[in-house]
Amino acid sequence: MAQVAYAGASRVYPGAHSVRAVDGLDLCIGDGEFLVLVGPSGSGKSTALRMAAGLEDVDEGSISIGDRDVTHLPPKDRDIAMVFQSYALYPHMSVRENMAFSLKLRGMAKSEVNAKVEEAAELLDLTKYLDRKPKALSGGQRQRVAMGRAIVREPSVFLMDEPLSNLDAKLRVETRANIAALQRRLGTTTIYVTHDQVEAMTMGDRVAVLRDGVLQQCASPRELYDTPRNVFVAGFIGSPAMNQLTLPVDGDGVKLGELKVQLPVRVEPGEVTVGIRPESLSLVGEAEDGFDLRVELVEELGADAYVHGTLAGRADKVVVRADGRTPPRLGEAVRVALRDTGEVHVFDPESGLRIGAE
Amino acid sequence: MTARTNRLGRGALTGFTWLVALLFVFPVIWMVVTSFKHEVDAATDPPTFAFTPTLEQFTTILDRGFLPYLANSAFVTVLSTALVLLLGVPAAYALSLAPVKQTSNALGFFLSTKMLPIVAAIIPLYIISQNLGLLDNVWALIVLYAGMNLPLAVWMMRSFFLEVPTEMIEAARVDGAKLPTVLYRVILPVVAPGIAATALICVIFSWTEFFYAVNLTAAQAGTVPVFLVGFITSEGLFWAQLSAAALLASLPVMIVGWIAQNHLVRGLSMGAVK
């Protein structure tokens, strides 16, 4: 079956300062799995995908698809299909020809090619546009043609490189759901690159977070959110980002302003980095337990409002999720309470690693 | 106030543009008009616009053996341009989409061949042609014109190849295409307008080339420009005949240019990305 395995795969760009764009990647994508590679720009996520496609050399380690080692095979022998960020349609060919190109190259009979193209067009709602050239299509339609070109081939693996980043926000949400549904229906192993964490969280069976070419964590979206392995993943997943404060240890907890926070794990004396998501905090009345925050910015999103402020007596910035109907005013001092100490993440300030990780 | 100055400015610009355009097109109009005159009318000073048009000059130049020269020009132009494309397209591909260490040196070398004035090379070229028995032979011109246009063509086509989206080529490779398929069925159709533009320039340059032609050819392999100077004789200038011949000489290029204009450059790689 078509599982994809990276084994210590590296891509090193030579030069005076050689760059390890992807550094010793170990990752196994199961048959039929939808894996999202996510990371900031320059994290090597696209390079990793292109290595699987055969468009980028593998300088160290190996990559296998199914039970074949494809490390040094050309793209055409890997049984993969790729969807590019720019769609990369052939401008001189009609939609039909674009989708049929790979099948024709394989020497498939004309009637069979037509049947497959029409089936894919039906699936993607492109039947009306089969005889148009790409320039006569809208952005969303072009994106679907790019998808169609991939699915007609019935490859073992789909590789998608930020396929939605050229669409407007509304269409992106719609297409996101369509792609996820299509992938479940076809059951084809998929590697999907994005820098958008919402795409990563909503689409992936598992999400692999990369930073500077190094895999940080690969887990289900839930697990990534609940137990990030280090401060980078903690800060990258979730919007707005998790509050991270480095504080001195005080007994079995830390003091957040006047609030004593008991940590859910045992820590050594010294300092720890605590991470608290904005939704783990809430605004409460003055009489209740909590710490004081001076409000500097309020982002109103309708249902929710995100209150940005500075911790009284410290320079640390904290973001709190509040009720969108009664947001505090700028400059006001508000009292903030912690919902549950179990929702506090604890990291080693030196290594950035999670403390008490199982 | 500003709107008015603006309008005035725009009016002045339009007037100036017309003036420049007229200045450029005047010799052409003069040539066309003169070609329909009798030699007597053509020689008047100041020029007259009141005359009885005649096709006499056209029949005269055809009688003087214009057609073989026209055939030579056509043959040399078509073949040298074909040769340029045959060699230039792969070169431009290699120098743009498959670069190696020495690519920029190779490009510099191509350009450097244009730095030597033709005059400086004409004596060696003459001797070489003589030794090869290629004097007054169209094949000498074909090779020389191809050599003359190749560097320019490679540079021009390279810039068109550079505009081909890399992802489109990668998509073709993932789709299972080998290099020749990628080249002929994906890249070439996309750069076709650019190649057409390049070919047009080669055609014009070959068609109007005079210096090699006048030095290396005579009655056998002479081209149209060589035929044209035949009208500048010791007995005087035959303005009307010369104009008629020049008109016939420029017609093919004008027609080719007009056809090409509709297909040129526009829409290069439109719709491939985004």
TrEMBL record, chain A:
It holds the Pfam family ABC_tran. GO terms for molecular function: ABC-type transporter activity; ATP binding; ATP hydrolysis activity. One of its GO terms (biological process) is carbohydrate transport. Keywords: ATP-binding, Nucleotide-binding, Sugar transport, Transport. The keyword Nucleotide-binding applies. One of its GO terms (cellular component) is ATP-binding cassette (ABC) transporter complex, substrate-binding subunit-containing. InterPro entries: AAA+_ATPase, ABC_transporter-like_ATP-bd, ABC_transporter-like_CS, ABC_transpr_MalK-like, ABC_transpr_MalK/UgpC-like, Mo/tungstate-bd_C_term_dom, NA-bd_OB-fold, P-loop_NTPase. SMART domains: AAA (SM00382). Residues 4-237 form the ABC transporter domain. PANTHER family: MALTODEXTRIN IMPORT ATP-BINDING PROTEIN MSMX, OSMOPROTECTIVE COMPOUNDS UPTAKE ATP-BINDING PROTEIN GGTA. This is Multiple sugar transport system ATP-binding protein. It comes from Prauserella sediminis.
From TrEMBL, chain B:
GO terms for cellular component: plasma membrane. It is a multi-pass membrane protein. Pfam families: BPD_transp_1 (PF00528). Keywords: Cell membrane, Membrane, Transmembrane, Transmembrane helix, Transport. One of its GO terms (biological process) is transmembrane transport. The chain crosses the membrane at residues 12-33, 74-95, 107-127, 139-161, 182-207, 238-260. It is found in: Cell membrane. Coiled coil: none annotated. It comes from the Bacteria. Residues 70-260 form the ABC transmembrane type-1 domain. InterPro entries: BP-dep_ABC_trans_perm, MetI-like, MetI-like_sf. PROSITE patterns: ABC_TM1. Belongs to the binding-protein-dependent transport system permease family. PANTHER family: ABC TRANSPORTER PERMEASE PROTEIN, MALTOSE TRANSPORT SYSTEM PERMEASE-RELATED. This is Sorbitol/mannitol transport system permease protein. It comes from Prauserella sediminis.
